[in-house]
Every structure is written in C-alpha cells, then in structure tokens.
Amino acid sequence: MVHPKILEVIEHDVCTACGACASACPAGAIVINKRAEVRDPDNLELYEQGAAPYVCEGCFTCGRVCPVIDGYYDDEFANVKSFFGAKSTIVGQDGGVTSHILKELLRKGEIDCVVGISRNNVWETELVLMTKPEDVDKTTGTKYTYDSVLEALKEPFEKYNRIAVVGVPCQAHGARLISENVNDKIVLIVGLLCMESFYHETMREKIVPEIMKLNVDDVVKMDFGKGKFWNYTKDGQEHSVKIAEVAPYARHPCHNCCDYTSVFADISVGSVGTPDGWNCVLIRTDEGQRYFDMVKDTLEIMENPAPPGLDLVKKLAKMKHDNNSGHYLEVCEKFSFDECGIR
C-alpha cells in the first residue's frame, strides 16, 4: 500500500496537530495526541485489537487538508481588504472582538455552532462546541497552549450546516482546506495572530514555575507584547520576561510555520498595532466582510489606528518568516513529494 503524505510530515516532526486530517478522514484512521498518528493497515495488531474499520484505506484525503503539505504564502497581506481597530464590552484578552463576533452571530442565528477552546484554572485546554451565545463566555482570552481544534469538527459536520471555526494560523489554514476539498459546512473562519504556541506540560512545568518563577494556579492571564511574555496574577501583579527566554520552548512545528496573521481566515484578529484594550482586525474575504457587517454596529471601531498600526503587524510577520522559512524549506527538501513550499 502507498502510505499517505502526512506520514512524512509526522516523521519529520512538523505536524502542527491542527486536527484537519482527523476530522476529514472517512475511515477514522487518524488520531491526534501531540501530533497526528495514522493507524496502519499493514499492522496486523490493529485488526487483532478490533480496530479493523479504523485503519487507513489509502484515499489520501488527509494530504489534501494538511497545511504543511499545502505550504505558505510569501505575502500574508495580499488578500487583506481592510485593517482597523475594534473593541467590545466583553472582557477578553484585549478588545474581546473574537468572542463578540461569535456571540452576536449565534444570537442572530447566522451560524449554528462554533468550534473553539476553553481552559480551566490551571491552563489546561479543552475543545468546546458552542451552540448558544452564553457558551462563548467559557472561551474568552488567549490560551497560548495548544489543542487540536479541527479534530472536534467530526460531530458538528453530522449535525450542523453553518459552522464557524476560530483558531491559530495552522487551524485556520486546515479549516480552509477542509472547506475547499472535503466539506462546505464551514461558513466562517476567524483566525488569530500567532507567533508560536506551547504544550501545556511545558507551560505548566517549565515556563511558568522555572522561568517566570510563579505558581501556575495564581496566573489569571498570559500575553505577549512589547518584546516580553507577560503573566498577570490573582494579586494584581504583572510579571514579564523577554520573549527570547521562552521562545525556544515553543512546539517544534511552530518553528517551521510561516503564517503569522492567519492568511487563510475570513477575518483575522489580534492585539498588535492598536492601543491597549483594542483588537486589530483584518478583513480578508467577501464572506468575512459580510459576517462582520452583521455585528459591526455593536462594536466600537477605530478606522485608522495610530502608528505603528499595520506596519507593526507586517514587521512581526516578516520576523516570523525570516526565522522559520529556512527551517520549513529544509524539511520540504526531505519530502518525497513537491507540493509544499512558499508561493
């Protein structure tokens, strides 16, 4: 049997664990832990363990939805229709815009559900299916630890017709590939700006206690800004270290990612290039514009954020490309296929 291309992505440790392959696999042959794992039909132990329906059938759907195989764009801003600042009354990471958009669209009945991530008090993440506006309240704030959002789409695909996805660049990319190649029920992709993310164990056992010198149970908010990684604690104190001190502990696939602004999203949201308490918003598609127009009147809008504005977003995107493109292209040279690359 010819094995799927994602096996090489896994072998070279560049699988982002976005979960696109797991949700798209018709045989249920892919599971996600820290990275994807494919149940191999040539491994007879699987049949002995009763897993016969859940092994690879060689349809190669997984390769069509893999962000690493699909590759990246050199210019992340070619599809940006507009850039502005926005904030809501929702208490979120900054302006609360992502939560506000999703909450309003659910309230208006414009989408059936949202797939996203919540966290508990010790920063463990959990995949959440939101079907009511109040469900969104469980997911506010940026987590910085990772979970495979798209893996959770399998059940919604069976029950709902208008699904929204919110996630970091690799997840937005995977959602777009699913929408284009497998299932058109994803109607809105909200992408987050992201330089890197971390495994929960690394954050809880290394970064917070050893580098930040804090108890993770006391941390109520994490943030990246002004060249530093910030932790805010229950006692109202702010703690920070230089990003360079924590960046080496990011997930290995993040060091090969060449997408900072979620170029494949309909709407991208971050906290860069706008004042504190505001989100930056990048509208990328006609659908993104249509959905944003439905909620625009319930947000405060800053049409022309003062400098550095979009220039800072572009600077950070270039920094990510400069740091990671060489690593990614080096891995591409090792693959037996040539679809990947930067275009």
UniProtKB/TrEMBL annotation:
Cross-referenced SUPFAM superfamilies = 4Fe-4S ferredoxins (SSF54862)
For whether the record's keyword set contains Thylakoid, the answer is no
Q: Which GO terms describe its molecular function?
A: iron-sulfur cluster binding; metal ion binding; oxidoreductase activity, acting on CH or CH2 groups, with an iron-sulfur protein as acceptor
Domain (4Fe-4S ferredoxin-type) spans 6-35
Q: Which InterPro entries match?
A: 4Fe4S_Fe-S-bd (IPR017896), 4Fe4S_Fe_S_CS (IPR017900), Co_F420_Hydgase/DH_bsu_N (IPR007516), FPO_su_F (IPR054922), FRHB/FDHB/HCAR-like (IPR045220), FrhB_FdhB_C (IPR007525)
The coenzyme or cofactor needed here is: FAD
What Pfam families does this protein map onto? Fer4_7 (PF12838), FrhB_FdhB_C (PF04432), FrhB_FdhB_N (PF04422)
Q: Which UniProt keywords apply?
A: Iron, Iron-sulfur, Metal-binding, Oxidoreductase
Annotated protein name in UniProt: Coenzyme F420-reducing hydrogenase, beta subunit
State the species of origin. Methanomethylovorans hollandica (strain DSM 15978 / NBRC 107637 / DMS1)
Source taxonomy: Archaea, Methanobacteriati, Methanobacteriota, Stenosarchaea group, Methanomicrobia
